[in-house]
Amino acid sequence: MSKLIECIPNFSEGQNEATINGLVKIAQSVAGVTLLDHSSDKSHNRSVFTLVGDEVGIQEAAFQLVKYASEQIDMTKQHGEHPRMGATDVVPFVPVKDATLAECVEISKKVAKRINDELNIPIFLYEESAANPSRVNLAKVRKGQFEGMPEKLLEEEWAPDFGARKIHPTAGVTAVGARMPLVAFNVNLDTSDISIANKIAKIVRGSGGGFKYCKGIGVMLEDRNIAQVSMNMVNFEGTPLYRAFETIRFEAKRYGVNIIGSEVIGLTPAKALIDCAEYYLQIEEFDYQKQILENHLLS
Amino acid sequence: MSKLIECIPNFSEGQNEATINGLVKIAQSVAGVTLLDHSSDKSHNRSVFTLVGDEVGIQEAAFQLVKYASEQIDMTKQHGEHPRMGATDVVPFVPVKDATLAECVEISKKVAKRINDELNIPIFLYEESAANPSRVNLAKVRKGQFEGMPEKLLEEEWAPDFGARKIHPTAGVTAVGARMPLVAFNVNLDTSDISIANKIAKIVRGSGGGFKYCKGIGVMLEDRNIAQVSMNMVNFEGTPLYRAFETIRFEAKRYGVNIIGSEVIGLTPAKALIDCAEYYLQIEEFDYQKQILENHLLS
């Protein structure tokens, strides 16, 4: 059984169909890699690709996509609503099956080095691959965006992890890193008071003193007239979904508010939910790898 | 993505290594099929094989195994602790991925017909494939065992589903059918009173008026001095694990008894546990096929 690694490169092009189609063709042409999904947003002027593949293929596909983007996208002329600093803005690698986060860190560094060696694009390593805590958060790394990067690279603490203190003239700077799969998990409350959702979001999220691997904000669902705690669970092993859920439940009680439902948006690894079943069913000594039938079927 | 079907044939041979090895070789030689596991019990004089494969391969493998067993195992000389009626005693087909129970019923009937056509072994269809309710339960179908079968087949209600009212002289009779994957799920109580576990088992199991797809008995865990409700969940979609679990919880309260843990024994389909996470996390409109990442990876 071979390792499976996901890569979700974000490109600063969401309008030019020829360029998007070119990226799709490359993603579909690398051996050992499957393009699971891609979506483009015109107002954001950005495309997000989701690829999965073996250790070798995923590195090749990531590099070839970054290369093509650097040839096609001219950041000096690019505008959109979404913050960005490079033609390929960010390249995260995510362990999916039989691969560890540490292995994805290694992969991210190899790809980062190759991008810089062959394309001369400076690279910041971020998230789990970050060289220091100030580079973990993408928003901090990207602050200043493409236009501010020439100056930022000259600041003492912002030397790129790979490459010189000088942007690629048209492709800018790219962030490469490794992270756990992200689960978008929203919990709905039986209140129309957004301030309650905001207070609870602050309690559960790491930045508010809550769970390290949980990000969260309060959101109003206008059509249902209810408030929601909208979360990104950025490491479901470090902060399991049920722990955030039960914390929201007991914090909401203070306001006489109850949970009326939840949503998982998009894809989730099976384990993020099976870990919750283990908790609620109080299963003793469950072995995910050995006891889940499907883990014996994936080749 | 191709359908995956599991087949778990039971052979009335658990002692003769040459025969067991012969079965293993056949199971490993059919294209499109993987032998996941096999185990033999000498005192039971029985071997259980677990194969998984595509629609075509699994039928071929099942037939070839039954053929070989009919050539090697002489039921007139076979003795063991486990009840049995044929060289191949029972051949269940189970939907694993992208296959339905209805499709497995069709497969079971095709294989049953071929076994009878080519090997002249009479077949009872059982479980979901059964022609009438009295043939659903294997124990009822097998009652009388190999020695009683010649007479049983002559009884008005026990004409085989395929073949004449006459056993194969050395291979006896075989039961073929389709069923959902079975999950062995045990719930531990904080009492050493086995009678409480027995009472609760009777309440949750279908035969006691409880959940249709749940079988259960009380069991004493001597080493821990606690009683357990030991269950087979024979259709986790019809009777989800959480429903049996929560019923055991509230029934135990009558006796001042609490659940202290549970066990899943052996393999479980991911969905059996993910359905429980959906319940406890109150997830709205979850789409198992689309939202579980791994479902996009299985080829």
Task: Give the helix/strand layout.
The structure is a homodimer of 299-residue chains.
Chain A: E1 4-7, E2 10-11, H1 17-29, E3 33-41, E4 46-53, H2 55-72, E5 88-97, H3 101-119, E6 123-127, H4 138-142, H5 145-152, E7 174-178, E8 183-189, H6 194-204, E9 214-221, E10 226-233, H7 241-253, E11 259-265, H8 270-280, H9 288-291
Parallel strand pairs in A: 5-7, 6-7
Antiparallel strand pairs in A: 1-4, 1-5, 2-4, 2-5, 3-4, 8-10, 8-11, 9-10
Model description:
Chains A, B: It is found in: Cytoplasm. The structure is a homodimer of 299-residue chains. With 299 residues, the first copy, chain A, is of the alpha+beta class. The first copy, chain A, has helices at residues 17-29, 55-72, 101-119, 138-142, 145-152, 194-204, 241-253, 270-280, 288-291; strands at 4-7, 10-11, 33-41, 46-53, 88-97, 123-127, 174-178, 183-189, 214-221, 226-233, 259-265. Chain A contains nine helices and eleven strands. In chain A, the strands form two sheets. In chain A, strands 1, 2, 3, 4, 5, 6 and 7 form a seven-stranded mixed sheet that branches. In chain A, strands 9-10-8-11 form a four-stranded antiparallel sheet. In chain A, strand 9 (214-221) and strand 10 form a beta hairpin. In chain A, helix 1 runs antiparallel to helix 2 (55-72) and helix 2 runs parallel beside helix 3 (101-119). The A-B interface holds A 4, 6, 34, 36, 52, 96-97, 181, 188, 241-242, 245, 259-264, 266-270, 273-274, 276-278, 280-286, 291-294, 296-299 and B 4, 36, 52, 96-97, 181, 188, 241-242, 245, 259-264, 266-270, 273-274, 276-278, 280-286, 291-294, 296-299.
